[in-house]
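Retro notes (design track)

What went well: tokenization of the new backbones is finally stable.
What didn't: we kept losing track of which sequence belonged to which structure.
Fix going forward: every design gets posted as structure first, then sequence, in one message. First example under the new rule, 194 residues:
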């Protein structure tokens, strides 16, 4: 009986050690492949929109606003958790003479953009071709408790190629014709330092 117990204990310790070593190798591979900063290389909308109020709508959002050039993603890989953080410009509209009308732009409006960050834990799908956010909650207005439509949670995050991510998000953007719901596909490239 004592020999069986010793054999079982030895087996369990070896098995546990192998699992720990496999997990450490998997962590190092994911860290080397995904951890870091990703800079935006394109942002396309499913509808042509006029965000810079020049009366020329475009599907290429980076042509519409320079603020999109500062968009980025940070992927943080830790041994026990993975985090996705997206930095994206959000508009803030001031109207000095009129009541705000969300259905159309007025020349008295002043529009400024600030970069916000949405951070969430994620998990990889089985073949590491997609990132699935865990427990993502919409941002709520602190005064009213209603969902602030400007702050959007990505619906698809795919690994496209080495060092490339594709992020699909439904967003409300303020255009010449007021707020429009659009689907944006943004491509990000990982900054790799040698």
């Amino acid at each position: 009986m004592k020999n069986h117990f010793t054999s079982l204990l030895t087996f369990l310790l070896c098995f546990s050690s192998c699992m720990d070593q496999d997990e450490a190798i998997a962590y190092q591979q994911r860290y080397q492949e995904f951890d870091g900063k990703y800079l935006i290389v394109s942002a396309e909308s499913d509808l042509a929109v006029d965000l810079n109020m020049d009366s020329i709508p475009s599907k290429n959002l980076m042509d519409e606003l320079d603020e999109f050039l500062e968009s980025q993603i940070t992927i943080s890989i830790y041994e026990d958790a993975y985090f996705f953080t997206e930095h994206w410009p959000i508009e803030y509209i001031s109207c000095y003479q009129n009541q705000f009308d969300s259905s159309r732009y007025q020349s008295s409006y002043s529009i400024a953009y600030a970069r916000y960050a949405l951070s969430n834990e994620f998990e990889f799908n089985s073949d590491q071709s997609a990132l699935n956010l865990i427990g993502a909650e919409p941002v709520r207005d602190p005064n009213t408790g209603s969902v602030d439509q400007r702050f959007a949670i990505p619906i698809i995050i795919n690994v496209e190629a080495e060092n490339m991510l594709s992020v699909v998000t439904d967003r409300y953007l303020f255009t010449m014709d007021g707020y429009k719901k659009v689907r944006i596909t943004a491509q990000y490239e990982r900054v790799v330092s040698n």
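Added context from the reviewer: The chain has two helices and nine strands.
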